[in-house]
Amino acid sequence: MNTEATATLDARGLNCPLPILRTKKALNGLESGDTLHLISSDPGSVKDIDAFCTQTGNELLENNSENGEFTFIIRKG
Amino acid sequence: MANAARVLEPEVNRDLFNQWFDERMAQKEAEHVPSMIIIATKGTLDMAYPPFILASTAAALGWDVSVFFTFYGLSLLRKDLDLEISPLGNPAMPMKMPVGPEWLKSINMNIPNIIMANVPGFEKMASGMMKKTMRDKGVATIEELRSMCLEADVKLVACQMTVDLFSMDQSEFIPEIQDWIGAASFLPTAQKADVSLFI
How far is CA A11 from CA A24, B12, B39, B104, B131, in A? Predict the structure, then answer.
């Protein structure tokens, strides 16, 4: 799954709102249709990333949590 | 425009008009860029977070954001940020050790006001502990959030009257400040904003 994403962003150890801000920055560098693999350890990012994608027209393809880590696959809109 | 002309025709075309109107409204809404204004009036470390967190996050969502810094809020735009917290008279502020064993870190120390008020350097110490806790928990520094706001084109405007009132100088503040203005210049921006916050 990781290998399929265009880019990977490791936001572990960062707290609100940094995962969102870093995600936005990472998406800025991608083309429409590219995917971003995001890893976060902030539990608040689960709802925030979802809301961020809805508002900004990006698509949240996957959303998993395991051992206190949250992974997301976002497709740039 | 063909549809618009038909609006004037009688009731038969009402449904058509309603459909056109709904579509037009939906289109307008989709094109609308949300906007937010914040009036930042506090200059302590804890109260520096809400305006910068909300402004940078809104900018990440693609919103137009302006923040007006007035009175003590102006301190947030200094070149050299040296912000402190004041636990005195703020019973809601947790007073916890940022270092040591877990049992010690979890204790909320109930420090009497007379100590907080009389021990020299108490605020410096409390501020240092708060900054350490924030760093350990991965919370951004104010400097970091402020530069992210600037990067994301958040408009930072400052109150001219505050500078004059407290005999400060514009050179003490970051050059990225878009404008030095007064209430009359900022309110028209606030009037058009979707979200207005006073912090």
Answer: 12, 58, 30, 29, 20
pTM to 2 decimals?
0.80
Question: Could you list the residue range(s) of the whole structural domain that residue A45 is in?
Answer: 2-75
Q: What would the pLDDT profile of B45-61 be if each residue is shown by its tens digit?
A: 999 999 999 999 999 99
Angle subtended by helix axes A18-28 and B45-60, to nearest 10: 30
CATH number at A14 reads: 3.30.110.40
Q: Which of B50, B48, B116, B121 is nearest to B87 (CA)?
A: B116
List the single residue in A18, A23, A24 with the smallest CB-CB distance to B140: A18
CB B115 within 8 A of CB B122: yes
Q: Do A21 and B57 touch (CB under 8 A)?
A: yes
The complex scores an ipTM of 0.74
